[in-house]
Specification:
Elements (H helix, E strand, L loop, with lengths): L9 E5 L2 E3 L4 E2 L5 E5 L7 E3 L5 E4 L7 E3 L2 E3 L13 E4 L6 E3 L2 E3 L4 E4 L5 E4 L2 E3 L15 E5 L4 E4 L2 E3 L4 E5 L6 E4 L2 E3 L4 E6 L6 E4 L2 E3 L13 E6 L2 E6 L2 E3 L6 E4 L7 E6 L8 E2 L6 E4 L4
Parallel strand pairs: 1-4, 2-5, 3-6, 4-7, 5-8, 6-9, 7-10, 8-11, 9-12, 10-13, 11-14, 12-15, 13-16, 14-17, 15-18, 16-19, 17-20, 18-21, 19-22, 20-23, 21-24, 22-25, 23-26, 24-27, 25-28, 27-29, 28-30
Amino acid sequence: MAANCPPSTTFTIKDGTYKLSRAVNANSGDTFKGVYSDKTRPKIDANGAQMAFNVGDTKGVTISSLSISGTKGGDWCEPECGSAIKKDGWNLHVINVRLHHNLNQGIGNPGPGFLLKNSEIDHNGSASFTDGSTSSAAGVKITRGPATFRNNQIHHNYWHGTWCDGFAGSVVISSNVVHHNGKSGIRYETCRGPSSKITNNRVFANGYLKKDIRKGRGGIVLVAAQDVEVADNYIRGNRGPGIQAKHGDRQRTFRVWIHHNTLRNDTLKGCKLPGVVCRANGK
């Protein structure tokens, strides 16, 4: 098991399907790297475990070139279960992975210095993880920064696609394709800079979950947002606003710049709020 190996071990995972009996507990500096010659990554089947990779209390873990699915959970462990990659570490890098069909999240609360790049995050989340104070379902949910999302496909997740929450700061979400997520594509809630950016993303067809939801649907939703620039995104076909800035109850909204976005027929809301500046957004 990984936990019994020294830190900074590289684990090479050859093509094939591997079923877990329990979570893989990473050590600082570990690398988990899939090797494959066709279009399908090596598959890690969590086989009902509460998480597949536990990166808690680590520094500098890298997970790459794997497909991870099959985590589960229930009332007894919510919201700390049901995620492919979970727990608060430092400088976790997740590159060229597919995380899919996990009951809660693809990635949950990964910690400062998080990087997600060139990956596909899809079909994560379920109704069980959307109730009240334990609501946590998402493709990826972060509560600490800095964090970077670049060149990913994030789609068909049950609730939110990407969800920044809990006063996380310095978040960069750039050049991603975010679509067909049940509630919102990108949710930036109670997060703050400095220099957070949501730029050059394609965000479309989010918010169509059949479950009745009165609030929070949309493409890019900014709630109690601070120090964030939303620019040069292509937005279309979302149920609810294409982009919306609104107040929340944990911090006030200010220093929000929304500019040069293409919204097609979607709406832009919240530009009259103090601290929100909108300019040069068009069809």
